[in-house]
Amino acid sequence: MPHSLRRQFALALAGxxxxxxxxxxxxxxxxxxxxxxxxQLAEERLLRVRLAQDLVAETATIALDxxxxxxxxxxxxxxxxxxxxxxxxQKFDAIVTQISTTSGDLVVLDLHxxxxxxRNSANVATQLREDSLNTELRWRALMAQRxxxxxxxxxxxRLPLLALLYQLRGATRPDELEGLRGRLPxxxxxxxxxxxxxxxxxxxxxxxxxxxxxxxxxxxxxRDEISRQSQAMGAAAGTWSTASANAYREAVQQVVxxxxxxxxxxxxxxxxxxxxxxxxxxxxxxxxxIGRLQEVSQHLRSDHPQALTGNxxxxxxxxxxxxxxxxxxxxxxxxxxxxxxxxxxxxxxIEQQRLAAIIDHTxxxxxxxxxxxxxxxxxxxxxxFGRAAPQRDGLAVGELLAELDPPLEVEQATPRSAIGLxxxxxxxxxxxxxxxxxxxxxxxxxxxxxxxxxxxxxxVRDATLRRAAEQQLTAARDAAIAAQRxxxxxxxxxxxxxxxxxxxxxxxxxxxxxxPTLDEPxxxxxxxxxxSGEHLLMLINDILDIAKIEAGRLDLLPxxxxxxxxxGMIGDLIRIKAQQKNLAFSxxxxxxxxxxxxxxxxxxxxxxxxxxGNAVKFSDHGQVQLIVHLLGVDEDRAQLRFExxxxxxxxxxxxxxxxxxxxxxxxxxxxxxxxxxxxxxxSRQLVRMMGGDILVRSVPEEGSVFWFELTVQVPKTxxxxxxxxRSAIGYAGAPRSVxxxxxxxENREMLAWLLRLLGFQIDEADNGLTAIARAQAKKxxxxxxxxxxxxxDGLQATRHIRADEGLKEVPIIAISASVTAEDRQKWVxxxxxxxxxxxxxRESLLRQMGELLDLTWIYRDGEGDAQPPAAGExxxxxxxxxxxxxxxxHRLTLAGNMxxxxxxxxxxxxxxxxxxPFADRVRRLANEYQVRALGALVKESMGxx
Length: 945
What we know:
With about 950 residues, the chain is α+β, with helices and mostly antiparallel strands. About 60% of the residues lie in helices and about 15% in strands. Helix 18 links the parallel strand 20 and strand 21. The chain is flat, with a radius of gyration of 61 Å.
């Protein structure tokens, strides 16, 4: 929009001219379109008339050519007729092609088809007619050659035969030909018919006449067909001509309709132009000019009370940048200045009242100071210092505050400490915040130093209560740290004291299990003792975890674990608890688990035992299941899913919400035995540290299912991870010497017995000082060192041994009941090579000794470190029981009851000695919890032999 009214008037007039000009242009365009359409219609009509005439002429010519073709009596006439017909057919096709480019009617397709059919029929008729003429010529030639010319005289003996042949020449129907053929045999038998080759020639003449009659009939049929096709071409041409006429009439009507529509559009455009002109004049003159002037005038005459009280600025609803818009903006600025002036006055009054209220009611003392004099003191300051408001001369700062650190002259953004001085001589700690004030003079300049010194505002806060609270918090923190240290020390000492007897129990249990003369109940009992001792050891470790959880120092220690042995130990422990409550327990492993997996064995076992223990605790009937699914395996990872299912009392939605809260026990008091409510909370925290999460679904009175998924590493080297039943009975090579250092004789005796069975030479020492002397005297191949001993502990002894040139290369393994991470770090720093926690695990100790001494172990089932033979070798057919005898074993396999499976296998072996190989393989698979392999073996054995 132009910025002046004169240009706006010119723009409005130009708009009106544009509207009328557009209407005229549209009218001219409409007239021209009608003329162009009429001319195109006339040209198309002329073209269609010419094509229709040519089409009719060519159709008649083609029909005439077809008649001449059929009636041609010589080959030359036949070919000339065919060439003329082909030429006219090509012209006919050209006309049809031209029609197809100007019209998309279906009649074009009929014309093409009729022309093609006529061409095909002409080709066939030409070939037949030519063949007929050739046959007739041959017939005449043979007649002339054999019987002479018809006008030549013949003997009386030949007249009957010649008469028959001339009748044959005039025969045109098959029945006539058959009648003549019936008269032929007597004539050929007469003396005149005995000439050599005459019978053959006569029969050939009959065959030629038979062929000519057949060709004549076919040519007659083609003549009729060509006649019908010519008529079809003519009908199609007539149809197209009629369709062209109809299309022309429709096109004419369309042109007429388009012309009438354009006339209506031109009239509507004219009316619209008139209305637009009226609207432009009304809008521009009535609203844009006169209306805006009236709006500005109204605002000038009105007082607008809301301009003085409202928060929004007054707006004159007049837009534009012309003279009227400039006038409206000037009125707005005038009204805005008046509104802001009124609001500023009101705001100043409100702020003054608010500031006075804040200063009077704040809990902190506020002092206004110039130089060293206090000019103003708020009521809180009066109460704080016991002083009245300062008089004309004011109070000195030193009368209220002492020991300012730093002084007021020193700039500091943070509060500074000081001592408040009460009027009754009482002193109290305070914090002082200092702010420098600036005052504007009449010229508008800012000054902060006016005559008597700088003007400052001091905010003084009494710090008595805060200082007392800080002292109490410090004391409480020190007490908590001391209590935590005492708790940690107590738990560590308890762990040490409990591990010492467990070392003897588990150590001698492992030694006794090596006895090959043990029967199965004895071996099972020793295995249960060992599993129970390891469970007790796990509880001791869990006690240490409490301190680590509270200190936030709980870490995972992944190590290679053999899955079958790991799950087997858990199954043995839980099966005992389940049998005590008459519950069935089953362990199912779905998928071929890897030979080893890297997990924190203790943490995962803690989680599974907690979930399974709860399942047994809250189930009164039915069964408890541990199901392990192998979801996927790649080169170095495996994804496992663990499910713990029970048929217990279940939980409702409210109980599920509180299930994982610390110290939460969701069932009634009758069920809250032997539990603190921390198990599930700690288990979920451990699973989340491993990269998963525990989920649950439960139905009241039906049971619960807990599950979680973990992704574990699959080590490339699995040696030493499987806890299989075979054990080392010695090692290859020369005897090795071992020095055992422990202040407890029972521990030394157990280790000495364990190692002497394997062929080691043993020497003993009861403290670190004696160990140094024995090591220097005996030069052992390896040292087993306790860390906590009287006289000299294991750390000091190890450092002295490492300082000895003759002993610094001797490997040293710590045998300690102190198992914290700090203890391990101290051991490594002192120069130790390995670490074995008490109670000693025979397999773990031998593995470390084998690595440090580079030993090759000899096992009971063979020599060397090779794995035991695979269990997939085929069994002899006679060692496999029948299908009926395997029904109970099949049922137990589906239930997953490994203990019952072992009992059933032993029953089969005792019933028939020949079943012993089959029973041994079943027991081996059951002991290693190879569920899939066991199921496949039983299913295959039940099949046809």
